[in-house]
Structures are given as structure tokens and as C-alpha cells.
Amino acid sequence: MYSKKESRYENCEETARWLRDRVRTPPCIAIICGSGLGLLADTLCDPQVFSYSQIPNFPTSTVPGHAGELVFGTLQGKSCVCMKGRFHVYEGYPLWKVTLPVRVFKLMGVQVLLVTNAAGSLCETYRTGDLMIIRDHINMPGLASLNPLIGPNDDRFGPRFPSLWDTYDPNLRSTALEITHRLGHAKLTHEGVYCMVGGPNFESVAEAKFLRLLGADAVGMSTAPEAVVAKHCGMRVFGLSLITNRVAQGYEGQEAVDHNSVLEVSKWRSQILQDLVTELVATICCQVDNDQQPY
Ligand SMILES: O=P(O)(O)O[C@H]1O[C@H](CO)[C@@H](O)[C@H]1O
Ligand SMILES: Nc1nc2[nH]cnc2c(=O)[nH]1
């Protein structure tokens, strides 16, 4: 799971330097696009696109709906990088690799991470197509020692024992809520707890009931490791789930979920999600790190 050689600071530095040598403006905001939600990246102005396969040390995307491209450009005048496709543990990647892009972004000067995902609803009042602003998460693999911070701690990234009580930035959350009201989406927006499971199977009924009892409002197979690593290295984090399906908590009258239906709902609702993220980016104050620090 953990490889000292491959997860070291110098690898992230090499990738960051490779990108920084090529991008016109280093980013101050990073956006990770969830399943089927990559269209946001197409709205960046003055884009520069890199296929993951070109980038040193980067994994490649293997999941439909994750194009496998890094797009640099500006959104609302802010210098951004968008991951059109993320990495998941179920693809066979170790957690340090799943989260490597976040550390690379940190070394490029990113201060704010916006994470989106497709998720199933466990909360009775959420409907398919709703949005959930992530207030907190339950990192199920993390609780069982599958945590991206396991291994020798490199203090250049962050402390050995980071606190996670305020991982999802309260100011970004309240600003996002205001925006959804302004855009007329208040009725379909919730704030709740995202639970990450390893996947790739969707939940059994008993598992879904168990996760609900634990306090989870939505469940997916990503996001928590990225948020943990971003918080560890001092970034502000905002998380947004698109509810693509209801998770069955009974044995009758439920429709089975599959990845195609997840992608269909993402396509249907991606404009709403894009509008919210775009408006949120407009409110974020951050400075482009133009000097070559920290390397
Ligand atoms: O979390 P994202 O990448 O949005 O993808 C979600 O959608 C896929 C299942 O359809 C899983 O990968 C789940 O995590
Ligand atoms: N684990 C999990 N991931 C999802 N991603 C989208 N929907 C779901 C779901 O119902 N369960």
C-alpha cells in the first residue's frame, strides 16, 4: 500500500515543476470534477490541457466519466486548475497516488480545493438531482487504517496529527448556501455528511442502513482522502455532492443503481453544479504564487 520511494516529497516536486514550467499562470484554486462532472473544465478561459498520461508520476483515469485531463485556465478571472477525472482506490491505486495531485497543486501554489462528486443519498429527504454541500465526512477506509497520511510524515506538507474538525471551510459553505438561494436552487440544496466507502460495488441494503445509522447523508467512493490531504497541507476545502441516486434501504420497490445512470444524472444536473462552483470561485480571494517557492 505504502511505498516510501514513490510517495516522497521529491516526486510531487518533480511533477509540480514539470507543470509549472509549462503553464502560463500557476493556479491558486484547484477543482476536482467528479463522475460525469468534467464539463466545468470546458468553461475555463484561455485553457491549457494536459493528458494525465503526459504528466510525470501521474496515474491514468480508468473510469468512464473521468476523461483524464488536467486543464489550467481562468474562471471568473481566477487562475484555476481542473482535474477532469479523479483517481479511486477501487481502481487499484494506493491512497498516496489517489491524492498525489492535491500535493502537486499545493506545491504549485494552490490555496483552495473545490471537490465535487456523484453520490447516493441515504437521507430520506434528498432527491435524485439534489445538491449536498459537504459539512463533514466519514472516511470509512480511513477508520480502518487506509488513510493517505499513513507512513512517515513529511513536515514540509503538514503535521503528523492534523485536526479535521473544520476540514470543510465554514465560510465557503455559507457563501455557497447564499449562492444557491440567489440562483433559485435553495429547495434542492442541502448540507450534510458524506461517507466514503472503498467500492467498487454499490451498497448492500444492510450496509446502507448501517451508514445511515452512523450519521451519513450521502455515500460515494472518493473525496475524503483528497480532503484529508488538502487539509493536512493547509488548504481551504469545499466539497459538493450531486445526488445521482437513492441508496436502497429496503428490499422492495427500489431500482438498482448503475454507473450509467449515475452519469446520466450528472449530465442532466451538471449545469446547476457548474453555476454554483463558478459563482463560488468569483467570491474566493487568493493570490497567484508567481515566485518559484517552495522549490
Ligand atoms: O466520486 P466520483 O468520482 O464522483 O464517482 C462516484 O461515481 C462512481 C460510481 O458511479 C464512483 O466512482 C463514485 O465515487
Ligand atoms: N458508494 C456509492 N457511490 C456512489 N456514487 C454515486 N452513487 C453512489 C452510491 O449509491 N453509492
From TrEMBL:
CDD domains the UniProt entry points to: PNP-EcPNPII_like (cd09009)
Pathway participation: Purine metabolism; purine nucleoside salvage
The Nucleoside phosphorylase domain, residue ranges: 29-281
Catalytic activity: 2'-deoxyguanosine + phosphate = 2-deoxy-alpha-D-ribose 1-phosphate + guanine; guanosine + phosphate = alpha-D-ribose 1-phosphate + guanine; 2'-deoxyinosine + phosphate = 2-deoxy-alpha-D-ribose 1-phosphate + hypoxanthine; inosine + phosphate = alpha-D-ribose 1-phosphate + hypoxanthine
PROSITE patterns membership: PNP_MTAP_2
An MF annotation (GO) of this entry: purine-nucleoside phosphorylase activity
InterPro entries with a match to the protein in the record: Nucleoside_phosphorylase_d, Nucleoside_phosphorylase_sf, Pur_Nuc_Pase_Ino/Guo-sp, Purine_phosphorylase, Purine_phosphorylase-2_CS
Residues annotated as binding a purine D-ribonucleoside: 203, 245
Enzyme class name: transferase
Its EC number(s): 2.4.2.1
Alphabetically ordered keywords of this record: Glycosyltransferase, Purine salvage, Transferase
Binding site for phosphate: 35, 66, 86-88, 118, 222
BP terms from Gene Ontology: purine ribonucleoside salvage
One annotated Gene Ontology cellular component of this protein: cytoplasm
NCBIfam families the record matches: PNPH, PNPH-PUNA-XAPA, PRK08202.1
Family according to the record: Belongs to the PNP/MTAP phosphorylase family.
Function, in words: Catalyzes the phosphorolytic breakdown of the N-glycosidic bond in the beta-(deoxy)ribonucleoside molecules, with the formation of the corresponding free purine bases and pentose-1-phosphate. Preferentially acts on 6-oxopurine nucleosides including inosine and guanosine. The purine nucleoside phosphorylases catalyze the phosphorolytic breakdown of the N-glycosidic bond in the beta-(deoxy)ribonucleoside molecules, with the formation of the corresponding free purine bases and pentose-1-phosphate.
Quaternary structure (record): Homotrimer.
Protein name: Purine nucleoside phosphorylase
Species per Swiss-Prot/TrEMBL record: Pelobates cultripes (Western spadefoot toad)
Lineage of producing organism: Eukaryota, Metazoa, Chordata, Craniata, Vertebrata
